Fold these 3 entries.
Entry 1:
Amino acid sequence: MTHSPDVPQLHRTPTGTAAAFDRGSVGRVVLAYSGGLDTSVGIGWITEATGAEVVAVAVDVGQGGEDLETIRQRALDCGAVEAYVADAREEFADEYCLPTLQAGALYMDQYPLVSAISRPLIVKHLATAAREHGASVVAHGCTGKGNDQVRFEAGIGALAPDLTCIAPVRDLALTRDRAIEFATARELPIETTKKNPFSIDANVWGRAIETGFLEDVWNGPTEDVYAYTSDPSVARDPDEVTVTFERGVPVAIDGEAVSVLQAVETMNRRAGAQGVGRIDMVEDRLVGIKAREVYEAPGAMALMAAHGQLENLTLEREQARFKRGVRQRWSELVYDGLWFSPLKGSLDAFIASTQEHVTGEIRMTLHGGRAVVTGRRSEHSLYDFALATYDTGDTFDQSLARGFVDLWSLPAKTAARRDARVGQR
């Protein structure tokens, strides 16, 4: 006979927000459902620990993989009383990927916020589902070591502060081995086994891979880690592509009109075939630890390269300088789970204002793991050939330069004289 593991009980905490409830005190729980081990087992854990009915909510953000109807049916087979999948691909591209592109957001100058920008969208759908199904509790499958626990709970707190969050994997310290034991004992339809080495999160903006042998930071990723990108060291012909933007929005690729979602998907395919967008970094997590993360985001990184070069052509110097600081702070806020914060809203308004003239075309070559911009043109360009050229026709008045340099360097010269004078005393 297969041993059936005991189910730890969730006990109500004084605040009602950490994790917990006495059995029978909860009517319905809305669970963020991915179809994987932790959330599939989470349905049973929540039901057995609290007696609550579980409504499973899966959100399609372009992660691919299994058929969404299969995922929905799995949730029902694992014990959910209701399950549905929200097709949010266009919403994700337009309302989450596009702002990230226009911000030029790269956490620690490397990570394009692949997972971080999907969590607020999932939170939005969880809050809506809780209202529709009369639930007072939402649940997620995050551990206590990661950033997503913060993103889910801070998001729920901002959108629906009356809802309570529970996190069985974190709050009951439910390990992977115990999850597998639980699933096996109850014959849950889950393919995950102890031999699966990685934790993977994917959407149309990119793919995140961690755990397994990658936890040793000396180990290099093997090719089987990647799915969105081909080996950049394999010889292949370069791919030249032209991306058209209107007010910071990619609207055409090689002259063919595209939606934002289609732009990302097309560049995922073309840049991914050239090995563009592989990232291997040690990341400063919000919870205070460093973690080794491997990402692949071919479409995101290629489009960011194109968009950034068009901004270089069309943004005024001081505006561009200030935006670089905004980009960093925006990235940190989103990474830290504060998508719905007042400060991010204010930064959003500034970023949107900078996109007024970001219209034009960027030509780039995709090859050998790199996306290299080779051409730019825009009717909104601030590049003046007559001012920039060193040939005949130059309209730049060089006679003004001497006085400018003298005035510009005057504070430094004055300080130097002071230092020399003080040093002689």
Entry 2:
Amino acid sequence: MRLLIDRKIKHLFQVILALLVCPMAVFTLLRVLHIKMDAVYILAGWICAGIGILMALYRYFREQHAVMEKAIDQMHVYLDGNHEIRLDCEEEGELYRLFHEINSLVSILNAHAENEGRAKHFMKDTIADISHQLKTPLAALNIYNGILQEDSDQQETVREFTALSEQELDRIDTLVQNLLKITKLDAGTVVLDKSMENLFQLMTQVERHFVFRAIQENKKLILGGSDTVNFLCDSSWLMEAVGNVVKNALDHTQSGDTIQVQWKELPSMIQIVVTDNGAGIHPEDLPHIFKRFYRSRFSKDTQGIGLGLPLAKMIVEAHSGTIEVDSERGIGTTFVMNFLIPTKL
């Protein structure tokens, strides 16, 4: 029986059994030896056995009471704020098994509390970052509107500052849209609608999205890869990830620079590589470029909001892939996205 695993219960049963067996053994031996005993002595023997059993039970329950009182005191210490306290559960038995389960529950509660604390801290930082990011374009919009009101009769001024206002509104829209996408991925509410897609066609759509900007900035956007490579993915989310990496490359290159988007199928994975020959990423920034709202003190880009690369990373990981970056100052930057091929695992 599992009840007898408890050393103390097992010892109690042994004591009670001994107290019951001993009088019976003595009375049986006397009967075999034909020694007569008065009923008074027999009754006294059983009374002594009963007293012994009561004492054994009292001792056992007193020890159990002490164990429970100690456990209650430890629980009170936990409730008072010492979340490192644990119930003693080194011995065997059902009671100590219960203590072990309570300790496991405490560990889970501590983990949830820690995660909640981190989430609140992250939310606080995120709100502060969003407020900071929105402050700049909103301030610019106020200035532009003031200028427009003062020079409303100057058509050239109106056109110029209307265009600038539109840029700032685009920044706000991009910020909000990226935040919504990241929030959906964080919450796990995004269900990837995967289907077999041709990478050449997907990358061509990415190129169409940025080709006008590349021409305006006198930059080359070059695609390179087989038109027979197919990949099981959510096409819209994958183009979002690759597009954010391409946009990052356009943001950090100069006139005359080149951005290449290449893809290939390896024996066990699909690989998409985005390379540019721009100024490169400072070594101090490399460990942080996938952090939300991270802005390098070395970057000359004043328009970025620091959400494109973190969003790209989340999308790649949602496809069970990885994204890595390699960069050298004065030579350029390479982003490598690797996706395992499920049928070849």
Entry 3:
Amino acid sequence: MSDVNFKDKSILIIGASGGLGKETTKHLIKDGATNVVMAGRSLQRVIDAKNDILSKIASQTQVHTVGGFDMLDPHKIHKAVSDLQDLGPFDVVFLGAGGVFFTEEYQTKEWKGKQIEKTVFQNLFGSHVVLQSLKREKLLSDNPRIIIAGGEGARGIPGMIKSPSFTTKKEMRAYIFDIKNIGKKYNPMDAIGVSKLFGALWISKLATLESENYTAIWFTPGLTSGTNGLAGLPPVKRWFMKHVLFGLMNLIGKAQSPEKGGRKFANCIEGKIGKNGDILGAPQGQALGKITDQKPMNPAFTNQELIEEIWQIMEELFGKF
């Protein structure tokens, strides 16, 4: 899919009420998208985001809203996808929902008798269930463009996020299924980096499925302030991070506004950035900058054993794709 014909495509935005999801949707509407479905966990928040966008933009775009996309609850995701029957099939699916848990130790999500590291579940496993459900409900077009929101933490950011290091499938399984017993100290930013790395492995497998005709892309626009990612922090710390720390980082060019990040995501959705199998983000050692191939920055990105294993884990937990 190219930017020439994106206006005729049906676009599904998961995580549409968040800062980046909302700004991405706004840019798509400004660019002339004709059919956009905004989806999120809370229907009212998605409706509020839609109304705010349309109060500022005169548009003929058909904008639909759907709730129920709780990325920690596969049952709710299945139900939410079934509610999309009259709105699909979709030519573009943007998997932008996720988050981070600001707690003192690792959290887990129970599923099928297993305790699964919660940040990975929310940032990747939920997205897998969304796409799997769309496929089963025949809500994907013949050549869908699938984009998952990445993050520079997947290869590390000096002074901010430790570079995730996995060399064997045993190490990866231990992190996902036995995190509370392997003695790793919890750092929420490092945890989000690991989840984004696993998302890149997942997209790499998706891009090579011979039985499908997907254009699968992992893309991050760079460090973005003003999103909902800090919602789990105490109020005072959240205010400091949002208005002082990120304000300073924006000023010196180390972070960007949701408006700028959303513009880049919209470009990716429209086909101006990214081709099948791409893993794209900021330059090495930076949180923001020229869109660059991330694969050389962490050997795990191209570790075929890890790529196959993440898919095997998905099928163990959620059945055949």
